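The step that takes the researchers longest sounds almost clerical: writing a folded protein down as plain text. The outcome of that step, for a single protein, is printed below.
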Amino acid sequence: MGHAAAESVVDAGLELVPVTFTANPAAGTIAVRDVEVELKGLDGMAEAMEEIKARYPDLMVIDYTLPQAVNPNAELYTSLGLPFVMGTTGGDREGLMATVDAAGTYAVISPNMGKQIVALQSMLEYAEDTFPGAWAGYKLEVVESHQSTKVDTSGTAKALVKSFQGLGMGDFAEEDIEKVRDREGQLGRMNVPEEHINGHAYHTYTLTSPDGTVQFQFQHNVCGRRFYAEGTVDALLFLKSRVEAGADQKVYSMRDVLEAGAMR
């Protein structure tokens, strides 16, 4: 995701700072379009970020890492006063929001940067608030498939499950979400194209009536990462506008980006 987001930054005509951080910097550099990006290790990351900020005063950070890095990374960005867009899922989300709120750092934090998926999520939240219990008694099944390197359960699936719970399927817990991470299941059961095994997001939510005679199904399937990367750049540009305006609100979600019409 980090590489795809960097490509979208370049494609949008923005300046890509030619440095990124990784647990495996052995390659030394990586090409992003025609920009040679230096790979730095995680040791000394704070000092390196301070130096980068000094060279690029308008620096903004895009974060796609691992769940265990969510909270320490947020603490680093806020300590340096760096606006950031975080699409990484997992971690201690309450702790994350508390850190950012306390620091007053500008940020867009969203478990999903796909604009249309966020719109679907918002519609279900509206339904949850407006028609509570509309699917009372129905059985919910949720299956999500991502590349094997995604170790946590999809944040989007968790968010949609919360809405379905409000719509009457409160017996379904986040732990009941089925994760598919094996190649055989992805190809055969989920019908993921082979060329996208290493980068996809296939979700199916099935709602079945108590007697089995009625069924509803919601599905969103994404191949590749560009879909999310483009949304990430929209979030970045939106955040830039908020910083430049000195907005009182500091922390935003992708829904705020959509409601502002801040999409290319």
In short: The mean pLDDT is 94.
